[in-house]
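We modelled the chain as a single entity of 273 amino acids. Its sequence is:
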Amino acid sequence: MAVPLKERNRAEHKRYKEDVEREGKSFFPYAIWHDTLMSLLVVAMIIGLACVWYYTADGTEAGILGPWYTDEADPGTIEFVPRPDWFFYFLFYLLRIFKWPESVFLGTVGIPTILLVLLIALPFYDRRPERRLGRRPVALVAAILVVISMGVLTWKGATAKEALGAEIIAAGTIGEWAETQGFTGNDTAVEGATLFAQSGCMNCHVYTGEGTANLGAPELTDVGASDRGIDFFKSYVANPAQYGNNVMISYAYLGDENLTKLATFLDASKGGK
């Protein structure tokens, strides 16, 4: 006959008290004292490292742990690619796996939330007294899979490369675009392609396999095949909101001449040979 859960819990608690009196020490105050002491040691170590950093460095001159400060950030840069802290790399890489907008919510909110809820609820649905790993294959396999998955995603996120305009231009990719798309002799389109690489467009758009697809931005390799004309692309890039696109920023700050170059490039992008 099975023993009721309440009676089994009482028996285990009584045995725990007896074991403490016979072999060990109670959680309070002994274990709490150990945790407090360890916390103080960690705080002391952090303070010590801060002192080493402060007293071995001098302004921009790096000490043992780096300088006090570096050059001021340039708010107008188009070459900086923002990245999260390392412990969010796994979530950062999920954005590359799940496509916007159909499944990105599932990858960035749904799955992490489900896993967190399961972890928080663990003490409530796993009430077995058995704690030996050899007798808990499901929990062991689940823990291993979670660790491996987060480790791989963290590594992939840390090594992920973003397309930067300077790298695209230095590699001579603009010339390859012009040859493939057939606008080699069109100087305005070539200059527009350079602007396209320099202005951060490839942080959201893909062009002939280069760049990153973000926020549902379409691939632009054959955008000119729609035959909408230079005036349309110029108007769209200057004010995307008038066409219902509230995600893309306005590039009106580039000026009329540069907008014409960029629009000419887009209109010449008809998919290539």
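As a brief sanity check on the tokenised model: The beta strands are 206-207, 210-211. The first helix runs from residue 5 to 22.
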